[in-house]
Specification:
The protein is α/β, with parallel strands linked by helices. The chain has a domain of about 190 residues: P-loop containing nucleotide triphosphate hydrolases (Rossmann fold, 3-Layer(aba) Sandwich), CATH 3.40.50.300. The chain is about 40% helix and about 10% strand. A hairpin with a 2-residue loop joins strand 1 and strand 2. The chain is globular. It starts with 6 loop residues before the first strand and ends in a 12-residue tail after the last helix. The protein binds adenosine-3'-5'-diphosphate. The site of adenosine-3'-5'-diphosphate (A3P) has 19 residues, from helix 2, helix 6 and helix 12.
């Protein structure tokens, strides 16, 4: 319940003080990654929890014991959060680390290491919708305001975690410098099994078909939304109010169509096209 109304300024972006302190951010900035680390990198609401679950299950070869008994923030902690230092394992073996920090802060340390980076990108229109509802439930976030204003702030990067465009472009521009795989939320949605197999290959974890079956089954939205270790129902209502919105809200592609007016959509696309002009990221979603 600490620092619910505090905002941390770091690297030109604002972050919720409930989860971040100057010390935790400094620790993140100085953290030494090592060979075997898997670093899940996302802009919020892009499929972070989903990927934490998939990677957990890849390392357990489909055995759901850890995924159903240890909260995601303990088994794949956020590098920049206050509890990271006390949570991260120092013993041998692969570590799953999560972060929303921008590339300019972390890329130098990652380049020096042999850590593997998994970057997930999601259609920003759906990110904006999901983020809007998250603002409603997260008591340590500022008021979202009405949806049209929220989208404007999102496009201007005037939300916690900064600009979606800067985040995506920054990390995508690291493609030659890092051992990185880029996946989209939408491709995971379209063919989860294929995404799991791609990840197994990237992580160097050969998998039997039956093991992939188990991972695929466990990582379905219907199953994950009932798993208390990932649906955030373990967090008290004073911090995350599930009456306002569920963390595992809809888990669909294209919910933006239920929220954007035609005019908003046109404005969004115009800005998207301008901002992404210098980025050749291939995505399976078009803006429709
Ligand atoms: P919605 O709010 O659109 O439902 P993050 O983990 O990065 O915060 O992202 C949360 C979003 O991912 C939420 O989107 C959530 O429902 C969705 N999500 C989580 N697990 C999922 C799954 N197994 N399948 C599809 N979507 C999932």
């Amino acid at each position: 319940m600490d620092r619910m109304d505090v905002t941390e300024e770091f690297a030109g972006i604002q972050l919720p003080g409930h989860l971040h302190t100057p010390e935790s951010l400094q620790y993140a900035q100085e953290f030494e990654f090592r060979e075997g680390d898997v670093v899940i990198v996302t802009y919020p609401k892009s499929g972070t929890t989903w990927m934490q679950e998939i990677v957990t299950l890849i390392y357990s070869k489909g055995d759901p014991t850890i995924a159903t008994s240890v909260p995601n923030w303990m088994r794949a902690p956020w590098l920049e959060h206050t509890y990271f230092k006390d949570t991260i394992k120092n013993e041998e073996g692969p570590r799953i680390i999560t972060t929303h920090l921008p590339s300019d802060i972390l890329a130098p340390a990652l380049q020096k290491s042999k850590a593997k980076v998994v970057y997930i990108v999601r259609n920003p229109k759906d990110v904006a919708v999901s983020f809007y509802y998250f603002h409603k439930m997260a008591k340590f976030f500022p008021d979202s305001g009405a949806f049209p204003e929220f989208v404007e702030r999102f496009l201007e990067g005037k939300v916690y975690y900064g600009s979606w465009f800067d985040h995506v472009k920054g990390w995508y521009n690291q493609k030659k410098n890092l051992d990185v795989i880029y996946l989209t939320y939408e491709s995971m949605h379209k063919d989860l099994r294929r995404s799991i197999k791609k990840l197994c290959a990237f992580l160097g974890c050969p998998m039997y078909s039956e093991e992939v079956d188990k991972i695929e089954q466990h990582c379905k939205f219907a199953v994950m939304s009932q798993n208390a270790m990932v649906n955030y129902t373990l967090i008290p209502t004073e911090i995350l109010d599930h009456e306002k919105s569920k963390f595992m809200r809809k888990g669909v592609v294209g919910d933006w169509k239920n929220h954007f007016t035609d005019e908003q959509n046109e404005d969004f696309e115009k800005i998207y096209k301008e901002k992404m002009l210098d980025c050749d990221l291939q995505v399976v979603w078009n803006l429709d």
